């Protein structure tokens, strides 16, 4: 690995990448739509869920704003319902890491790579995920759209992490996620390593089309450095 390719910061997605989603987000989206009278089995529900699935990885409030472009109050009501439903689903079903995720976090730490988790969830839901997994000490930074700028597919949160850790060169950044939005954010931020995983929302071809430099089966296969051997 050349100096230009040396990875010092890894920006990792949560649900579907490091955390097994187990349809929690899908359940919360369905319940949020239901709270607005958009119920399963209707054409309106089918259209809304198609939009939501295409938009996985985006900020949740922005997903609802695109769904209800002329009604900010309705978008905010749907987003609040999603947040409440997601927290309740975590309470009911719990969360588990994707197999190999925790060992990958350990490998990154051992190699001196700073780890930032990035999500389209709200700060409230992000906190619930990290509390449930007891991951606060496993990551160096956790960012969501409420931390400023735009959420994915824009590069803002990746670049926020780069500024936080004083990354010398954006080519020293790795981005890993399960959605096209993750891939776009990584490419737009200039990351040299943009890795799609097949444990979440989007298939291999869509990840490649969005700019993945690698597509691997899971976070356990993340092509990052191992700790240097002692001299």
From TrEMBL:
Example of a GO cellular component annotation carried by this entry: cytosol
GO biological process: DNA repair
Domain of life: Bacteria
Record GO terms (molecular function): phosphoglycolate phosphatase activity
InterPro entries the record matches: HAD-like_hydrolase_sf, HAD-like_sf, HAD_sf
Pfam families listed in its UniProt record: Hydrolase
Cited PANTHER family: PHOSPHOGLYCOLATE PHOSPHATASE, PHOSPHONOACETALDEHYDE HYDROLASE
Name under which the protein is recorded: Haloacid dehalogenase
Phylogenetic classification of the source organism: Bacteria, Bacillati, Actinomycetota, Actinomycetes, Streptosporangiales
């Amino acid at each position: 690995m050349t100096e230009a390719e040396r990875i010092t910061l890894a920006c990792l997605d949560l649900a579907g990448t490091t955390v097994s989603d187990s349809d929690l987000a899908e359940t919360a989206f369905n319940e949020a739509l239901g709270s607005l009278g958009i119920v399963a089995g209707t054409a309106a529900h089918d259209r809304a869920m198609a939009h939501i699935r295409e938009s996985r990885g985006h900020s949740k409030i922005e997903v609802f704003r695109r769904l209800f472009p002329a009604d900010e109050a309705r978008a905010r009501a749907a987003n609040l319902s999603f947040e409440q439903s997601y927290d309740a689903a975590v309470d009911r079903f719990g969360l588990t890491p994707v197999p190999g995720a925790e060992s990958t976090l350990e490998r990154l730490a051992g190699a001196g790579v700073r780890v930032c988790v990035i999500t389209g969830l709200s700060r409230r839901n992000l906190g619930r995920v990290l509390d449930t997994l007891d991951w606060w000490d496993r990551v160096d930074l956790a960012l969501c759209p409420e931390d400023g700028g735009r959420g994915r597919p824009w590069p803002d949160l990746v670049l926020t992490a780069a500024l936080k850790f004083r990354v010398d060169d954006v080519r020293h950044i790795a981005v890993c996620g399960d959605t096209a939005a993750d891939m776009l954010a990584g490419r737009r931020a200039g990351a040299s390593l943009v890795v799609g995983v097949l444990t979440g929302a989007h298939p291999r071809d869509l990840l490649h089309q969005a700019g993945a430099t690698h597509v691997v089966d899971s976070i356990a296969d993340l092509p990052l450095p191992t700790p240097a051997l002692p001299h």
